[in-house]
Amino acid sequence: MKKLAELYRGKAKTVYTTENPDLLILEFRNDTSAFDGLRIEQLDRKGMVNNKFNYFIMTQLRQAGIPTQVESLLSDNEVLVKKLQMVPVECVVRNRAAGSLVKRLGVEEGQVLNPPTFELFLKNDALHDPMVNDSHCKAFGWASDDQLAKMKELSFKINTILTDLFDKAGLILVDYKLEFGLFKGEITLGDEFSPDGCRLWEKSTLKKMDKDRFRQGLGGVIEAYEEVAKRIGVCL
User: Is the whole-model pTM more than 0.90?
Assistant: First the structure.
């Protein structure tokens, strides 16, 4: 499958059309951004690590019955995916308090959330991805009741699968974001799942093994990504 035209260029990935109108190519770049793109750096190997990490996770989820857009791994930095009609809201599941939840509610970082929480955020960089609810999604036509229910159901199924996967690797899945779209009318998991879009902590030390290392200037970003990948069985 060959790349034709650039369809979209995001903060860390570029999307290309192919000769098949139902399929796209995602190219993972080394660009690393934080704070809505205000800080951008190139981190060697990041594109390769995130591409293979994402392919591994999506394969695990597909084998567990979760519909995903990933079709096949094309190269170190490229993956073939289904073309989705994306729902313009992100689903966020939190198992522990961290990030914006701590800032918004003044709770202690690391507090266990039982049950895990589910939140929706509008995908809009200019507005800094504001938090929204079901009523907003329906009123503005972003998603229907059935679509929202399916996204929530899949988000929690994914939580069960991945919490167990990371737990066995000595890691806590603190929180993560998911993006969904429609493929031939079916809600399908899209975008990516990598340390860029989730929080992972060491079980024993609570050491951060995700993009917070970049956000907080902790260093060793890619080394942490590679360590997580190695533990869960990603072949880099």
Answer: yes
